[in-house]
Amino acid sequence: MIYLRLLLTFVKIGFFSFGGGYAMIPMIEREIEGHGWLNALEFFDIVAIAEMTPGPIAVNCATFVGYKTAGFLGGFAATLGVAIPSLVLILIISRYFFKFQDHPLNAAVFYGIRPVIAGLIATAAVFVSETAIFKGKLSINLISRLLRSPLDVLNLGSIFIFVISFIILKKTKFHPMLVISLSGALGILFFYVL
Amino acid sequence: MDKRVNMKLLTDIFITFFKIGSFTFGGGYAMIPLIEREVITNKGWIEDEEEIIDVFAVSESIPGAIAINSSTFVGYKIAGRKGAIAAMFGVVLPSFIIITLIAAFFSKFQDNEVVKATFMGIRSAVVALILMAAINVGKKAIKDKFSAAISATTVILVLVADIHAIFAIIGGVLAGLIIYFTSPKRLAHIKGKGGEDN
């Protein structure tokens, strides 16, 4: 049955992908091509839409692939599938996590992991900036072009929105959701109207 | 009585994560400021910011989408197993609704110029959101030269050498273990500091 196959395929993807939603994309692609559900071009569009719409990119991809393959229930099965591994793993882990929370070994391990997470978040900021603030991937080449002619590589509208957002987040108590809504409106102003 | 209060809390968790899911763009880390605002500041469900960092540390270390892992974990922290389920459905449902509508009615969604412009604007703000998260988490995580070195190494290895996040995490675990087994003095220092550090 197609719904069951969608469900199980996305359970598998959820269980075997490390590194979050972006890391799942190649795996989803392999699976849907293996099953012959969608072609590469259709999948390319799905990833583009998954990135542009709110919500975790993995869920967006799963829902879309499921819907395109087998309609509403297909979307439902795939969405459930991609979420189930998270639920199962978290339920298992949290039982032990809270049990050993005060163990010194736990303190030492988290002392080591926390700065890694800080670093990973910083690199995530860089990766997103490559698709908004900079016109291209950060590289030696891009940096040298940046020094020669900044306007060729920098997206001024984006920089403005970035700076405004950062100031609001840092200096005011406005809700981050408000900042996101405002940035969308400014995006229409800068990149569509003007 | 007890059951009703419980149901109310679960509904509240569901709605909160529905809101968070509706405003998550650009990957799980952009959620951190949203979770902090809703779960710590607004609801007071979790008191310590450090707990949120550990939630993300666990979420990144296991398979699955970071956004779902972290929401489910926070839900568990607030209200156990049922809380985890409420948070998971909450964070997933907006995606399901929006994508189903787009797939059914707007086949050329991604080519629409207004959509593209909106998204470009949002992505610019997402950089600020993630940067804020990096600063806040960094403040809590970097306590001395050793942890600062771990952060710097992570950034360099991921950006320059393109290593996978999971190997950076394993590296962090090893660094922690090395301290545990070789430097009891530093370990006592870490424990002594607890969450009271700035």
**Count of helical regions of chain A:** 9
> Biggest β-sheet of chain A, characterized?
none
Low-confidence stretches of chain B: 194-198
CA distance, first residue to last residue of chain A: 51 Å
Low-confidence stretches of chain A: none
**Share of helix among residues of chain A?**
over 70%
Strand-and-helix sequence of chain B, N→C? HHHHHHHH
Biggest interface, chains and residues, is: A-B, 99 and 106 residues
Q: What fraction of the residues of chain B are assigned to beta strands by DSSP?
A: under 5%
The termini of chain B sit apart by 41 Å
What's the assembly state of these chains? heterodimer
What proportion of the residues of chain A form beta strands (DSSP E)? Answer: under 5%
The overall strand count of chain A is 0
Give the class of chain B from helix and strand content and strand pairing.
mainly alpha
Class by helix and strand content of chain A?
mainly alpha
User: How many runs of DSSP E, i.e. beta strands of chain B?
Assistant: 0
Mean pLDDT of chain A: 89
Radius of gyration of chain A: 21 Å
Mean pLDDT across every amino acid position of chain B = 88
Largest sheet report of chain B: none
Question: Which of globular, elongated, flat, extended, rod-shaped describes the shape of chain B?
Answer: globular
In summary, what is this structure?
Chain A has 194 residues and is an all-alpha fold. Chain A has helices spanning 2-16, 21-35, 40-52, 57-99, 104-129, 140-148, 150-153, 156-171, 176-193. Chain A is built from 9 helices and no strands.
Task: Summarize the helices and strands and which ones pair or pack.
The complex is a heterodimer of chains A (194) and B (198).
Chain A: H1 2-16, H2 21-35, H3 40-52, H4 57-99, H5 104-129, H6 140-148, H7 150-153, H8 156-171, H9 176-193
Helix pairs in contact in A: 1-2, 1-4, 2-4, 3-4, 8-9
Chain B: H1 2-22, H2 32-42, H3 49-61, H4 66-105, H5 113-141, H6 145-159, H7 165-182, H8 184-193
Helix pairs in contact in B: 1-4, 3-4, 6-7
